[in-house]
Structures are given as structure tokens and as C-alpha cells.
Amino acid sequence: MSLPSHGAATVAVGGSGVPMGRLIGLAALAVLLVAPFALYPVFLMKVLCFALFACAFNLLIGFSGLLSFGHAAFFGGAAYVTAHTVKVWGLSPELGILLGTVTAAGMGLVFGGIAIRRQGIYFAMITLALSQMVFFLALQLPFTHGEDGIQAVPRGTLFGLFDLNHPFTMYYFVLAVFLFGFAVIWRTVHSPFGQVLKAIRENEPRAISLGYRTDRYKLLAFVLSAALAGMAGGTKAIVFQLATLTDVQWQMSGEVVLMTLLGGMGTLSGPVVGAALVVALENYLAATNLPVPVVIGAIFVACVLLFRRGIAGEILARFGNGRPQA
Amino acid sequence: MNARLLAGAALTALTIGAALTAGSASAQGLSGDMVKIGVLNDRSGLYADLGGEGSAVAARMAAEEFGNKILGKPIQIVTADHQNKPDIGSNIARQWIDQDGVDVIVDVPNSGVALAVQEVTRDKKKIFLMEGPATSRLSGDACSPTGFHWAYDTHALAVGTGRAMVQEGGDSWYFLTADYAFGHQLEADTAAEVKKAGGKLVGAVRHPLNTSDFSSFLLQAQSSGAKIVALANAGGDTITSIKQASEFGLTQSGKQKLAGLLLFISDVHALGLSVAQDLVLTTGFYWDMDDEKRAWSKKFFDKFGKMPTMVQAGSYSAVRHYLKAIEAAGVDDGPTVAAKMKEMPVNDMFAKNGKILANGRMVHDMYLARVKKPSESKGPWDYYQILRTIPGAEAFATVEESGCKLAAK
Amino acid sequence: MMGTIFGIPPQALFGQLLLGLINGSFYALLSLGLAVIFGMLNVINFAHGALYMMGAFVSWLLLTQFGIGYWWALLLAPMIVGLFGVALEKTLLSRLYKLDHLYGLLLTFGCALMIEGAFRHLYGVSGQPYPIPEALRGGQNLGFMFLPNYRGWVVVASLIVCISTWIAIEKTKLGAYLRAATENPVLVQAFGINVPRMVTLTYAFGVALAGLAGVLAAPIYQVSPLMGSNLIIVVFAVVVIGGMGSILGAVLTGYGLGLLEGLTKVFYPEASNIVVFVIMAVVLMIKPAGLFGRER
User: Which of B142, C100, C213, C288 has the highest Cβ tally under 10 A?
Assistant: First the structure.
């Protein structure tokens, strides 16, 4: 897998105990904490949900070298499960999201089981086709309500304490979910498990010869990625109070690829940057007369042709302590 | 290490900055100094012709009657395309109300989207004037104190077309149904009406919204042997299914007949009389019925180049009534205006003595019509022969029948 | 009447099979193009659906803007789409051959977004009607169903194209180069054949097939910017099942899955949309390289 390898040098943000860096990290967190006072909270929540989705996707492509073109299935599948359990079963939002996450993980296990033996384009196409199957299931199963989607999902009260109907409460909950997901990814990348993934990405035969059962590692990464994507989808269902076909359409899979590629594959901050940019762009362009897909498509093409490291990747490569670039 | 951490954090901050600017670009201060009307519908897809820009034109005509000013403040009309996606529709509605100070949402064809928007407007206590969507649930179990269902609904269509077709001898039915809220409700309401009139149901097949190829569905309908193949769909789907039915010779044997349960004049215009002739339909409006309708429709035609559909005419009527209610109430907050609207009778070129029920249903006369043969038509847009007037009380369900929980209050 | 087959009235069974064959004709044409391109370029052409749509739109524009009818469109539209393909390959795709093949997929995905977005912006998403050519109007009563002449023509035309492509690849010199280049591009290059030009022409030919399918589809499915976007995923599944790069596999699987879909519509219509993907999953578990493919 050579695809993300140029990002290898930029696998970002290591070193603990760096006071200056911590300071800036804290500053970013502070900005996130006060952001809803300056900005439309629903917009911010959308950014955070997609940022988490992109981070989850990046865990797979950036750190294990697997391009999944079917992540919409996990995102949207979990959205449906969360919406259904919260609305129909009357579960609390945190349980609903948990169930959505678990469902996505289960789907990840199945998808991964089928696709993991193939690589590269094959892997991409197989995940794509499987996610399209989920799309058709969502179109036809009775509990998803076809084109209408699951509507009027109550936001409910978190842990029976916090009323999520209040926009700020909802925002801080979403922020907490995002930070949790981000922390899980950070931990994973910096764990021995993450190191093995990187080894597999760089040279799979070698990893095998070292005695690693690479398929297992890849499958585990896939399941983890699917679960986190599901967490993002479930949270989105609570924020927007509905789950629809848009979330499971293959275009959604493409969107997350775009966000990650644009931001920078294989960097921790890249997908966040990419997601924020794409969501902001879509929001901004919607008010103009420009055709959104054309602009997005053009950016995508430019990205593939000109700056494959993505925004974060390019910046980190430039300021990256003069580390060699792969 | 240090520098890279720094760069990472700086990036995150940068991103947030970017998000900040982009977010605020679409944010505008809330202005209570105007009445802002948001026309939300399908502007590019299969329902664009029945509502679309035409509904905005009609809403503007209503505003012009007030000199584009109300209580000394300007009336502003904005439009958006919901692309027939419930998530896009409800997001736009939410953003319009939260950020852009929109006071009322108009039209919203596609029942699925309308149901989603109704959730938002109910929650935010804003007026929602529905002309495009059909499902009777909007004034039934999904009703809202500030929601108004204006032009027609699935119940009226069932009573009109369903009953008439059974009376003509079409006593066995097969449904070709658009697979979402609207189609399901139209099928259910019509099936109930058919059974009541002594007909029987042979079966049904569901097709996705915006289907391009109906051949396999039509084949199923054909082999069902039912006398009536009922199209519980709308707009582009209806046009395509009628065309392909004629391609596959569905009605050729003479044993089967098509029933377009929801036909708009724009559909008939697109199909042409030679294909559409003799279809029976139920409508809330036809331009060529009396002088008042003709005069208004002429004005509409001069602006838009097409005759109004019942959705577009209804948009005019609803916006006009809404503005009159604001004038009478002196305020524009949702619940007050809603109460005022329900007090006042609706009298305009669209409806005579229309009255609004507690569940938001605007009750007015509907019409059963037959599409003319090419030989009967005097020219473009001379399409319908009105067979009978269906009194409002017969066409629409009562509050009790509707299942709206507001009714009790 | 002939009674029933497995409790199904024969007109429903044969009717749906015939309709399945018509759908299969489109699958076959599109997956043939994908397979040819993949064999030569090792690129999965995500823009294939968009180019199919473009073929339909070009013929619609030829008719409405220039009054050029169906039969000329059948020749012109694939050529125009093919030329567009040449431009695409020369300016964009060719820059990526040294990189991982996934970048080809990503690039063509971006192109698909742009092409579809542009047409959507210009013409909206509702279908534009394209009339059936005069000579092919009407239909035949086959006893079990009424077959519109035009749909019969689609099956015939697609069979002709698929078979002649197959013969061209198997019997002609160019085809021999192509097969050789598919097997081992480095070796072919070593024999002094201009592989880059062959690559360009192959891409052009592959997308021209998509354009041709678009013209054939226009009178049936109407002309809409979204007509290719869902179809392409099914075609991907077809290619995966057939075995990627296998031309015979792509064609046979295309028709076969069309028929199978038709059959599903008779016995369990709800599953007709997902049957292709289920088959794909099963095939992958048993034969990871696809039915006609080899492990590579």
C-alpha cells in the first residue's frame, strides 16, 4: 500500500509534556468551548459530527492504508438505529448513540470479514457495493420509513439530567462525544496496535513475515473505524432529530473521502480541518448561485493532482521539524 | 516534535477560524421589522413544475396586493430548493427560522419533507402554509397548531377520483404507489374509499420516488388483472408512468384503465392531450371556471408563462390570508396569527367561504374533472371539463375523523 | 393460457425475464467499458456513470438544439463522449499512472462529481423526455407480454456491440496488443508499441461505450443528470463478480445479473435491488478474484 505513505513522516502530534503545544491545544479547546456563543450552534454541531466521521475514516485510510468507499453505511446505519431506538423504544440519547455505535461495529465486522482479504481498488469497490446494499435495505425496511426517513426524533435528556433541547447543552454534548472519539483515535494511533497498523501499511508482507496476523489487525482497525463512524452518525441523528437516506447514500461515503483527503490523510488534525472546510463551504456556497458539487469536485480533483498530502499534511510537512518526507 | 505539535494546534485554531467566518457569512441579525416569507419547494426536480418558482410568483402576487408592505413594514420573500430530501428541507427551515428571521414557510410539496418541516415549525411556533404536500396526516396525527393545509389532500383525492372510478364500473384496483409518506397515505385513503363504494383491492406495488423505468411495475399491474391501475404518485413520476403505460400497451386491451389519483395541470400539459385524454382527476383549482379565476390566472400567466396549478393558486390564497390575519392581529407571532387565521373565513379567487378547521385544514370546494380530448380543446391550457363540484364538507375529513390531537383542545 | 410455472403466471415470469435482459444489456455495455479500461489502465473509472449520462445528454442536446435525430446521435454521441475521454485521460488521468491505482479511482470520482454537478446545475434533476425514433415505435405482442420495439432493439444493439468488441479483442492485431498489454504492459512497451497512445485510445473506447449506452438509454429512462449515479455502483458490483479486467466475465455477468434481477422481481420483488450485492458477497467469499478473474 503506497497510497498514504507520503503522510508517514507526518503522522502527527506526538510528544507529551510539551508546554507550548499543550497551551495551543488548550487554546483550541477554549475556542471550541466558546464557539457557540459566536456561531450558529447547529452549524458547529454539524462540523463536529462530520469531523468525527472523517477522523474515524482516517483511522482506516491514514493509519492502515485501507480505502473504504462504504463508510456511509456505518454513519447512516447507526443514525437509523439511534433514531429508531430513541424515538420508538424511548431510549435515552446516550443509550441510543451507544446502540448505534455497536450496530456500526457489527456491520464493520461483516463488511470487514468480506472485504479485508482484498486490497486497494478491490477493497474500495467491495465496500462501496456493500454500502449500497445497506442503502437499498434502508430504502425498503419498514422501520427506516423509506424516503421520509425517521423523523421527529426527540433529543431527550442526557443521563436524565441535561435537557438536550437547549442548543448549548446539545452542543457541549456533541463536543464531548467528538473529544471522546478523538481521544480514542489518538490512543489507538499511539498504541502498539497503531504501530503494527502502520507497519502493515508500509509493508504488509514484511509484517506477515514478522509473525503478525495482519488480517486480524486490519479487521480490528476496520471495526473500530466503523464504530466511531457510527458514533458520529448516531450523534448527528440526535442533533438533527432525523435519520434519512442521505446519510447512507454512497455520496456520503465520497464526502468523507473528500474531507479526509482535503484535510490530510494520516494526520490527526487533517480530517478535522477537512470536515470543517467542506461543511463551511457547502453552507456558504448554498447561499450563492454556484453549483456546489462542481466546486467540491474541482477541489477534489485538484487535491488528487496537486496536493495529495492535504492541507494539514502540507503544513505539517513544511513545519515538520525538517523531517524527511517520504 | 514541538513544532509539529504547534503546527497541529495552530491548524485546529485556523480551522475554527475558517468555520467562524463561514458560519457568520450566512448568519444575519434577526429582524423583526419585516414579514419574511420563505417559499420552500422542489425547484429543480420532479415536482418543480407543480410548485417551484410558480409558487414564489404566486406568493409575490399576494404580497403585491398589500403593496409589499404590511403594518408599515416591508414584506420580503425568499426561496429555497429542498431537493425532495427531508433532511435538507428541515435544515433549511431550521436555519431560516433560527438565523434568517423567516416568519412563515410556504408550499413544501413532497409530503415526506413537509412532515419534517412541520416538526420544526411546530417546535418553533411558526406558521407553515402547505399547498404542495398531499398527505392528510399533516392535518391528522401530525397536525400542528400553526400548520395550515391549504389546497387539497389525499382524503379529497380519494373521495373525488376514487369514488368516481368505482361508480363507473372500475371495481377492482391495483395500486402503483410512490414509496413514501404521500404515496402510502394516498393509497390508504383511496383504498378505504374504494372499499366503501363496493370495489375491491387486488394488490399494490411500491416504486421509489423519481423512478425512471416503470416497466417491471407496470408488468406486475398488467398481470394482476385489475380493472383499474391506480397511480398513487405525482409530478414527474405520474408523467413517466402514464407514458410508459401507453408504451407497454396497458390500456390497449380495453380491460384495464389508468387512474391518475393526483394530476396537476402541469402534468397534463407535459403529457399532451392525446396521451392524457379522458383521465379523471380531482383538483382544487382550474383557471377557466369563473371570471375571477380567469383574471387572476391571466395575470399569473403574464408573469410566469404557464397557467397556475392548484398548488400555485393555493400559495397565493394562503399567503394572502396569512397577511390579512397579520393585518387584523397587528402582530406577526405564530400562535396569535394562527388563531386569527382560523377565525376569519377565506374569501378570494381560490376559495369561496373557505373555513379553517381546528386541525389546520382549510375546507373549500373541490372539483372532479375529466381531461378533454384533443378535438374538444380550443387551445393550450384548455384541458379540463369540470364534471362535478365536490362540496368541501364531503371532500375533507372532519376534525374528529382526522385524528388530530389538537382537536380535543 | 399456459397455466403457471411454480405458481407464477408465465407472462409475469417471461415478462420480467425479458425486462431483466434489457437491464442486463446496459450492465453488460457499461461493465464491458469498465473492464476494457481497467485491463489497460488499472483504473476503475468512477466517472463511467457520469459519462453514460453525458451520452444521453449529448443525444438530447443534438436533438433539441441541432435537430439531429437518434440514428446520427447513435454515432455522434459516443464519439463526442470518447473525445471528452481523450481530453480527460491526456490532461488528468495520465499524471497519476506512477502512483497507487487508488488515486485513479479518486480522481475519476471527483470528475464524476463535477460532470454530474454541472449538468444538474444546467438542467435540473427532472428527466428530459427523449422521443423513441419513428422506426422503432409500437411493439410486438409476444403472447406473454407486449414488448415495445425499442426495448427489443436495445437488447439486439447491445448484443451486437458486445460481440463485436469481443471479436475485435480476440481476433484483431490491435486486440492482440491490448490483451498483451493487459497481461504485461512492461513487456509490450519493450516490444516498441506506443503504450501511452494505446492507453488513451482504450480509455476513449471504454467511455465511448458508456456514451453509447447513454444514447440507447435516453428514450427508455429519460435524460437526467442522476441517471448514472446509482447505476454505476451496480455495474461496479457486476465487474467485481465477473472478475476485474475480464472482458468476457464482464459481459456474461452483466446479462446474467440482469436476468437474475428480473427473476427476483417475480419471486421476491423487495429483494430485486440488493440481489446483485448479495451475489457479490457470496462470490467474494467463495472465489475472491471473481467468477472469471484470476488472482493477481
Answer: C213
Contact partners for chain B, using 3 or more CB pairs closer than 8 A, are A, C
Tell me the three cell numbers of residue A318.
513544511
CB A253 within 8 A of CB A131: yes
Which range marks the domain in which residue B265 is found?
155-283
Residues of chain B that touch chain C, judged by Cβ-Cβ distance less than 8 Å: 43-46, 48-49, 83, 205, 210, 212-213, 215-216, 219-220, 222-223, 236, 240, 243, 247-249, 252
The beta-carbon neighbor of A151 closest among B4, B86, B94 is B86
Residue A63 has which C-alpha cell? 493509519
Partner B contacted by A226 (CB < 8 A) = no
Residues B219 and B273 placed together within one structural domain of the fold: yes
**Nearest chain C Cα distance for residue B241, angstroms:** 11
The closest CB to that of C124, out of B48, B243, B248, belongs to B48
ipTM summary value: 0.85
| Same domain flag for B76 and B135 | yes
pLDDT of residue A320: 60
CA dihedral sign of residues B333, B339, B341, B344 = negative
At residue B183, the pLDDT reads 94
Contact A121 C102 (CB under 8 A): yes
- pTM above the 0.90 mark? no
Residue A142 has what pLDDT?
87
Residue position matching grid coordinates 464531548: A176
- Domain range C10-122+145-286, its CATH number among 1.10.1200, 2.60.40, 1.10.238, 1.10.3470: 1.10.3470
**Which pairing describes strands C146-148 and C139-141: parallel, antiparallel, or unpaired?**
antiparallel
Q: Is B391 part of a structural domain of the chain? A: no
Residue C281 sits at the chain A interface (C-beta within 8 Å): yes
Q: B43: which chain C residues are within 8 Å (Cβ-Cβ)? A: 124
Q: Is the dihedral of CA B379, B385, B389, B395 positive or negative?
A: negative
Instruction: Determine the residue among B248, B264, B269 to mutate to test chain C binding: the one whose Cβ has the most chain C Cβ atoms within 10 Å.
Output: B248
Calculate how close chain B gets to C244, using CA atoms only, in Å. 28
Q: Is the pLDDT of residue A124 over 70?
A: yes
Spatial distance between the Cα atoms of A314 and B10, rounded to a whole number of angstroms = 14
Question: What is the Cβ-side half-sphere exposure of residue A34, based on CA atoms within 13 angstroms?
Answer: 8
- Give A-chain residues touching B181 at CB under 8 angstroms: 145, 147-148
Q: Are residues B201 and B221 in the same domain?
A: yes
Q: Report CB contact under 8 Å: C12, B219.
A: yes
Which amino acid, one-letter code, is at B377?
S
**Is B236's CB within 8 Å of C227's CB?**
no
pLDDT digits (tens, 9 = 90+) for C141-181: 887 778 889 999 999 999 999 999 988 888 888 888 877 77
Query: Model confidence over B66-93: pLDDT tens digits?
Result: 999 998 889 999 999 998 999 999 999 9
Neighbors of chain A with 3 or more C-beta pairs under 8 Å: B, C
* Whether B359 contacts B119, CB under 8 Å: no
Using a CB-CB cut-off of 8 Å, the residues of chain A touching B8 are 12-13, 21, 267-269, 312, 316
Chain B residue with CA closest to A42: the answer is B95
- Please report the sign of the dihedral spanned by the C-alpha atoms of residue C169, residue C175, residue C178, residue C180: positive
pLDDT tens, per residue, chain C with 296 residues:
445 666 667 777 888 899 999 999 999 999 999 988 988 888 889 999 999 999 999 999 999 999 999 999 999 999 999 999 999 999 999 888 888 888 899 999 999 999 999 998 888 877 788 989 989 988 888 877 788 899 999 999 999 999 999 888 888 888 888 777 767 777 777 777 777 888 899 999 999 999 999 999 999 888 989 899 879 989 999 998 998 878 889 999 999 999 999 999 888 887 888 899 999 888 888 888 888 876 55
C141 interfaces chain B, CB cutoff of 8 Å? yes
